[in-house]
Specification:
Strand content: 25-35%
Number of domains: 2
Helix content: 10-25%
Order of helices and strands: HEEEHEEEEEEHEEEEEEEHEE
CATH topology of the largest domain: Jelly Rolls
Largest sheet: 8 strands, antiparallel
CATH architecture of the largest domain: Sandwich
CATH class of the largest domain: Mainly Beta
Mean pLDDT: 88
Distance between the termini: 29 Å
Structural class: mainly beta
CATH superfamily of the largest domain: Exo-inulinase, domain 1
Radius of gyration: 19 Å
Low-confidence stretches: 1-18, 27-32
């Protein structure tokens, strides 16, 4: 009995300082909070505390294992458009933005882009997702979740990843719902104050349990909502997604779905430390 008590006490001490039971908390080192301090972990690896808390790598840092391309019917990885190098996953553009306008890239560079969205091979229901992302000037991408290829024309909830110089930053409902960390075209996050300078790593976190969803950026909760609530359905009715609903359907209320990284065709955005735990 005494041994059991000591083990429980030790576990409580280990996780007392953790970010939500050992949430990856350091975008620059991939560290995990443990015992009130960050336990160092190399990028694209799991610390002992993370493993104990149920975290798993969603990307191994070196291959497309566990991922498929939307353009390939979600059957095989993309043949181009996504670069893996030095433990970093980068989406490559087909065009670029200069002074707020789209411009063509040199043909040899444009040919490298156009791979389409990258999709997990597995569906998820209740989960906590942590992803490091690095923006470039006027970059646009997103982390999409509850994606079902044959439902709502493939549209789903999206954690917006965007640099403020992109033309889309002031478009959409209220002119604020397409900014970084927002629920794209639905709920503004007003998270610009928490974004790190270009070239530095940021950490996005999405928590979805039952109907409750939260968006976090660099340790700050920037929005939350209830899927299927009257308020949520009213927001859907004002969004671009309302036209994707067929009679009797409810957009944004799929019980399960895949996770996607968006290829916006005009941006270079890098990712690493993709980690998930099912709740």
């Amino acid at each position: 009995m005494k041994s059991t008590y000591l083990l429980s006490l030790a576990a409580a001490v280990l996780f007392a300082g953790c970010c939500t039971d050992c949430t990856p908390c350091n975008a620059s080192s991939g560290a995990c909070c443990a015992g009130g301090a960050c336990e160092a972990a190399a990028p694209n690896t799991l610390s002992a505390a993370e493993k104990a808390a149920g975290w798993k790598l969603l990307w191994d840092g070196k291959s497309f294992d566990g991922w498929v391309g939307e353009k390939n019917g979600c059957k095989t990885p993309p043949e181009k458009g996504w670069k893996i190098a030095d433990g970093v996953l980068t989406v490559l553009p087909r065009k670029a933005i200069k002074d707020g306008k789209w411009v063509d890239l040199p043909p040899e560079q444009a040919a490298l882009g156009g791979g389409g969205d990258l999709v997990t091979a597995k569906d998820y229901r209740d989960f906590e997702l942590s992803v490091d992302f690095r923006l470039t000037e006027a970059a646009n991408s997103g982390i999409k979740y509850f994606y079902n290829r044959d439902q709502f024309k493939g549209t789903c909830e999206e954690y917006q990843i965007l640099h403020e110089a992109h033309p889309d930053s002031t478009k959409g409902r209220d002119g604020k719902c397409r900014r970084v960390a927002s629920l794209y075209d639905m709920i503004p996050a007003n998270a610009e104050a928490f974004v790190k300078p270009l070239g530095e790593w940021n950490t996005a976190r999405i928590v979805s349990k039952g109907t409750h969803v939260e968006h976090w950026l660099n340790g700050h909760k920037v929005l939350s909502y209830e899927r299927g609530s009257a308020e949520f359905r009213a927001i859907v009715a004002q969004s671009k997604y309302v036209k994707e609903q067929k009679p009797g359907e409810r957009w944004g209320e799929a019980p399960t779905g895949r996770i996607k990284l968006q290829d916006h065709n005009d941006s270079t955005v890098s990712y690493r430390n993709l980690k998930i735990r099912e709740l």
